[in-house]
Structure formats: C-alpha cells, structure tokens
Amino acid sequence: MRVQAWPHGGKFNETFPELILTPSARLSAAIEILDDIAERRRPAADALKDWGLAHRFAGSGDRAAIASLVYDGLRRRASAAWIMGGETGRAIVIGMLRLQRGLAEPSIASLFDGARFAPPPLTEDERKRLVEGSLADAPPEIAGDAPAFVLPSLTAVFGDALLPELRALGRRAPLDIRVNTLKQSREAALATLADLSPEATPLSALGLRIPLGEDGRGPALHVDPLFLEGGFEIQDEGSQIASLLAAARPGETVVDLCAGGGGKSLALAAITGNAARLIATDADPRRLAPIHERLRRAGAQVEVRTPRTGKARSDVLADLDGTVDRVLVDAPCTGTGTWRRNPDAKWRLRPGSLAGRIAEQSEVLDRAAKLLRPGGTLVYVTCSLLPEENDAAVDGLLQRGRGAIQAVATDLAAVAGLDERVRRTARGIQMSPAMTGTDGFYVATMTRKS
Prior knowledge:
Layout: E1 3-6, E2 10-13, E3 18-21, H1 23-40, H2 44-54, H3 60-75, H4 77-84, H5 89-99, H6 105-111, H7 124-132, H8 140-143, H9 151-158, H10 162-169, E4 175-179, H11 186-192, E5 199-200, E6 207-210, H12 225-228, E7 232-234, H13 237-245, E8 253-256, H14 263-271, E9 277-281, H15 291-298, E10 303-305, E11 324-330, H16 343-348, H17 351-371, E12 372-382, H18 391-401, E13 405-408, H19 418-421, E14 423-424, E15 428-430, H20 433-436, E16 442-448
Helix pairs in contact: 1-2, 1-3, 1-5, 3-5, 4-5, 13-14, 17-18
C-alpha cells in the first residue's frame, strides 16, 4: 500500500480512497466534537456520527481513533477541566492527554504545534497547568469524574472506597465475549481465536477476554467467522455472571421479562443446554428486534413474545401467571455501572431520569411477582450502582407483596471465587470495576412463599 503527503493534515491512501489524518488533526477533530456535545447536549454517538458524515474523507482508523479520544475526554471531563481551568473541548482534551493517557507537557506541546489542521500551540498558562495542576485538593466529584448529585448514594454503597471505585469507572472497559457452549467449549474457542490472543475471564467460566489496541478499541469481532457461526456473543463478564447467578435449570419454565436484544436469554439457553422452556419478552417491542437473528445464529431455543402496540395492546404473558418457575428481571436502569463503556451517559444523568427509572422498576417487579408459582424464584438484575435502584427496589416489592414475596440470599456457588471479591448489600450483591473487574451489576434473589 502506498501513501503520499496530503495537504489536509494527513496522508492519502492510494489503495483506498480515504485520508489518513495526523495525530494532531485527530486531536482537532476530537476538540470539535466535544464542543458540539457540550453545546447541543447530545449523546456522543450522535456527534461522532455527524462528524463522520461531514468528513467522509476520514478513514475508519481515523474515526476509531477520534472516537477513542472523545470517549477518553468524557471519562475525564471534570478532572481535566479542573487542572486546565476551563470546560472547553480543548481544555478537556489537553487535560485528558495528561490524566488518562499519561503524556507529559513536552509530548502534548508537540501535538499542539499550530500546523495546518493541528490545534493552536499551548499557551503559557496551559503549559503551567500541565506541569503544576493537581487533583490533590479536588472534591470527590471532580477527582472521581462523576455527577455530584449521585455521590451520597454511591458513598452509601462504597464508603471509604468511593474514590477508587469512581476512578475504576473512569478506565476503559475490557472486551469480553461469552462462548456459546451450545456449539463448542471455551477451550475450543480459545484455540479457534488464538490469533486474537484471548484469555479466560477471571470469574466467568463462559468468558474470554480479548486484548484491546493502543487506541482502546478491540478487533472487529462482528465479522469474525466464529461469531458469524454463532460461536460467541460479545458480553461483559459481569453480565455473564448475572446470567449464571440466575441459576436457571433444565426442565424449568423461565421468563426473561426485560429481554431487550436477548443477551441474557441467549446465555440462559446455553447454560441450560436448551433444556428449559425459555420465554423472552420486553415492554418495548423495538428492543426485541435483534433477538431473532441472534437466536438463529446461536442455535438457542427461546420463545419470543412481542407485545402489540397502540390501543390493542395486550398482556402477552397473561396465560403464565402463577405458573413460572423462574423470572429474570434485567431491569431498565440509569446504567451507572456501565460508565466505563458509556462515559457520556454520566454527564447526561439527571435526578428526574433516576425517578423515572425507579417507577419503571417497581412496575416490572410487580409484573414479575405475578408470574411466579408458589416456591418460584425471581432474580432481579440491574447494571446500576445506586441503592435506590437496587436494594430499595427490592424492599419496595417486599412491602407491596405483604409477605407473599421474600428475599433470599443469592447463591454464589455457580461462580468460583466471586464470594471473595463481591460486595454484599442488605438484599443482594454488587459487582463493580474495582472489586470484580466487571461492569457494576447488581443481583438480588426473591421467592414467592409456598
């Protein structure tokens, strides 16, 4: 492949008609996108998509590198702004390069050289802040890069470990896959994917961890032959653990009440060897759209019940009331446990959105309890770290159930080593990046009294 100098801050690839941007030009793009996100208060994915459409000359590698810069900037938005004394995209990128990527002032200055399509040179104040700036006196919402209004809730969960937990939430998430044991063992998948240098996940017996590149991105797994054959699904180890803790057994009738795209339905099918009656549904039929192709590819036997919309909407589970052995509720939540993957979500979180999620959780838990047979099990899962969505949601169901539903300890035996690393709460268990190296999943177990 031959490349030649190109006047727009990069090189032109003669084999493929796209520009290869210089590192400095990529920084300029990231600054532009971060300013757009702040000004228009929009999701990062939308801003990145619009930038790509407006700059079609940028190649896929450039777009990936720019996205990585933007997301790293959002991970360190508060702390970068603190040391740089401003909240502009430029201040955030400069501070992020020091805090997140570990670059010293001379290295950063060489990227901000003022050449065409590069950011303007560092000012004397910026140089001084890069050398002398410190987070030693920063409040926890700054040092931990989190919205201030959630800190009391997070402190209630983590106590003195709050800042280490927040910093762990600011790191990049690993790339985990769940091997589909309906098709092959984890050992066989390790051999098949050897060119990607995978390693077994530390806790889940179903998972493999794929190394990330220097830009924080992994290989294009969605085009890997083993993926196309249904051999694995991309799924965080925490989500795999939650699926294992659901403890579905062959012969049971199991309902995945908030199935969405079907990640946990697929896992339950593999865990039970397609020997349970699995039923997947979701209040929003649009979220169910991907599940059919995923089930086909995986060879998973799951009955999908899609609710009708509009005035003719009906309860697609009414015939199952009082008969279900196990209900999995992977509830809609704020997603605070996934901030490593979705760093812009924490800056868009508002108290009103938390209140809305709590109301949804109450509704779906009440529906789940109605499905249970006497002695049946309800497994409540969120990807949240907030006790309002976790223990408090369980307490709410127990109170509304007036003794018909009772909490039981979640059996951790299905995941070797989890008991020593997980944080126990009043009603369930809390995973977190700092303790378990996973997203922040919460799991609680209840039963309908006989």
